[in-house]
Structures are given as structure tokens and as C-alpha cells.
Amino acid sequence: MKTLIFRGLLLSIAIATLGGVAGAAGPKGKDPRRDRRDIRTDTRDIHRDRRDIRKDRQERRADVRDLRDDRKEGASKQELRQDRREIASDTRDVRADRRDLRKDRRDRRADVRDSREDKREPPE
Predict the structure, then answer these.
(1) Quick one: which of 89, 99, 81 has its CA closest to 60?
(2) Mean pLDDT of successive 10-residue segments in the chain (124 residues)?
(3) Which pTM was predicted?
(4) What is the crossing angle of helices 32-73 and 77-120, to 10°?
């Protein structure tokens, strides 16, 4: 009875040890091309987002000019209020997009850094 319990204990320890070693080894054969491809697509997305933000800011400036013109022409208070709300909404959207872009750029830099560190590591 004691030997059966002892053998079971040894077997469970051996399985736990092998599982721990295999888990600590990490994924083998990580494809660096996939990482580079992800970085490239992230870079393209960032460039497109920057272009869209630039366009949104230009449209917002045009809306502000239109508001000034409407104010000079004597548009109704309701129209002016609606224009101001649209401009405020556009401003919030641009700020949120810039914040998201900043986060995306930070994540991309971390991915590039990780990719470079993976290159320096000796093969397993």
C-alpha cells in the first residue's frame, strides 16, 4: 500500500515537473515573418489613421469658417447652436482618434522592440 502511494506520488511529481519545463520553454518555431507582417500592417494602419485625422481637422476648420460666415450673415440661433454642437462633436472625435493613434504607435514600437530582441536571442 505504501509503495503504491509512493509510486503515485512520484508519478504525479514527474508529470508536474515535465509540464512545468514544457510550459517554461515557450512556443518553439515562432515565425518572425508573421511578426514583421503584423508590424507592416500596423504601420499602414497608423499612416491611414493619421491621414484621416488630418482630413477631419481640415473639415473641422472649414466648419468653423462656415460658422463664422453664418454668424456674420445673421443665421438663426438654432442653426448656430447646431453648428457649434457639430464642431464640438468633431473636436471630441479628433481628440479620441489622436489618443487611439498614440496608443497604436506605442504598441507598434513595443512590437518592433520585441521583434528586435527576438532576433538577438540565440536559437533554441
Answers:
(1) 89
(2) 74 75 57 86 94 95 93 90 94 95 94 86 69
(3) 0.66
(4) 160
Q: Cα(58)–Cα(61) distance, rounded to whole angstroms?
A: 5
Residue type, 20: G
| CA distance linking residue 63 with residue 78, whole number of Å | 16
HEC string of 41-78 equals HHHHHHHHHHHHHHHHHHHHHHHHHHHHHHHHHCCCHH
Whether 112 contacts 42, CB under 8 Å? no
d(CA 41, CA 89): 29
